[in-house]
Amino acid sequence: GLLLRAEATKYLTEALQAVSEAELEDMIENIIDAVEKQPLSCNMIEKSTVEAAVLECSQSLDETIDHIFNIIGAFDIPHYIYNSERKKFLPLSMTSHPAPNLFGCAKDKAELFRERYVILQQRTHRHELFTPSAVGTHPDESRSKFQLKTIETLLGNSARVGEVIVLGMITQLKEGKFFLEDPTGVVQLDLSKAQFHSGLYTESCFVLTEGWYEDGIFHVSAFGFPPTEPSATTRAYYGNTNFFGGPSSTSVKASAKLKQLEEENEDAMFVFLSDVWLDQVEVLEKLRIMFSGCSVC
User: Fold this and answer.
1) How many Å apart are CA 170 and CA 207, to the nearest integer?
2) What CA dihedral angle connects 88, 91, 94 and 99, to 10 degrees?
3) Which residue in 146, 204, 148 sits closest to 180, CA to CA?
4) 64, HSE (Cβ side, Cα atoms, 13 Å)
5) Positive or negative torsion for Cα 198, 202, 207, 213
6) Cβ–Cβ < 8 Å for 251, 235
7) CA–CA dist 252, 240 (Å, integer)
8) Do 100 and 112 contact (CB within 8 A), yes or no?
9) What distance separates the 2 farthest-apart alpha carbons in the chain?
10) CA distance 199 to 208
């Protein structure tokens, strides 16, 4: 847990006096999130840390219309790493990962897939089909639940392992032979009896595989993709963290001003163009038609 020094407690008490009782709990949670996002050397919180957290929460409430719409460069997007122990996303600066480099090495490619696996794994574990049943629930409800296994679990068994579900990445380590890979190991797949759910399956994509393991081969009976998750569910776990960057410290989707602007401009739209070759007459004619149509609106 976090401990406050006396001066930090006094400052926080004074800062929260102006907050209504209905908003107090949400405000405290936002302040805690802002404190945890800072690089903490210990669990004893200084006054300066609390001041920075309160200031961040205050700025998110006092956002201006100028900050609603921003163009964010690809290299300006903040980099977050999921921490399995703390079960939250941490800024890259709070981890041991090196700073991003435009010219990466082979290790960076492996790290990309590892991060993708961790993100999909934590999201899949939250799905209702994979969350463990509460104590005292009906047996029928418990039987409808599934449990994710790792490849290491399969490789550690010399006997047949029946009806398991594994999350992993499809790879082709040998010509004509497909494998399933996760951070714990690699296992060869037998796809002769596999049934594929709807979707496009390619190498290096992550899938949920169901089947049985025997003699070093994972015999797949069904292929599917990890379940999707609505943004509302994600926000319930991670709050209004701004994963996309920009001047706002919180997600702009939660902005009251942005919602107001959208309601006042129902016919507003954004047009994105690419490969606009201005040296071609046909392109200029089409652009003229598009601009004339937009001017009418």
Assistant:
1) 7
2) 140
3) 204
4) 2
5) positive
6) yes
7) 8
8) no
9) 72
10) 12
- End-to-end CA distance of the chain, in Å? 56
pTM above threshold 0.85:
no
Q: How far apart are CA 58 and CA 147, in angstroms?
A: 42
List, in order, residues 6 or more apart from 209 with CB less than 8 Å away. Answer: 165, 166, 167, 168, 180, 189, 218, 220, 222, 223
Q: Rounding to the nearest 10 degrees, give the CA dihedral for residues 100, 101, 103, 108.
A: -40
Helical segments of the chain, H only: 6-16, 21-36, 47-61, 106-126, 139-143, 151-155, 231-238, 256-264, 281-296
Radius of gyration of the chain from its Cα atoms, rounded to whole angstroms: 25
The CA distance from 104 to 5, in Å, is: 43
Q: Which of 164, 166, 197 is nearest to 180 (CA)?
A: 166
Collapse the DSSP code of 203 into the 3-class scheme (helix H, G, I; strand E, B; otherwise coil) and give the result: coil
CB 62 within 8 A of CB 54: no
The tokens 């993100």 sit on which residue?
119
Per-residue pLDDT of the chain (297 residues; tens, 9 = 90+): 788 888 888 888 888 887 777 778 888 888 888 887 777 777 888 888 888 888 777 665 555 445 567 788 888 888 888 888 888 888 888 888 888 888 888 888 899 999 999 999 999 998 888 887 666 666 666 566 788 999 999 998 888 888 899 999 999 999 989 999 999 999 999 999 999 999 999 999 999 999 999 989 999 999 999 999 988 888 888 877 788 887 777 777 777 777 888 888 888 888 889 889 999 999 999 999 999 988 776
Q: How far apart are CA 185 and CA 166, in angstroms?
A: 12
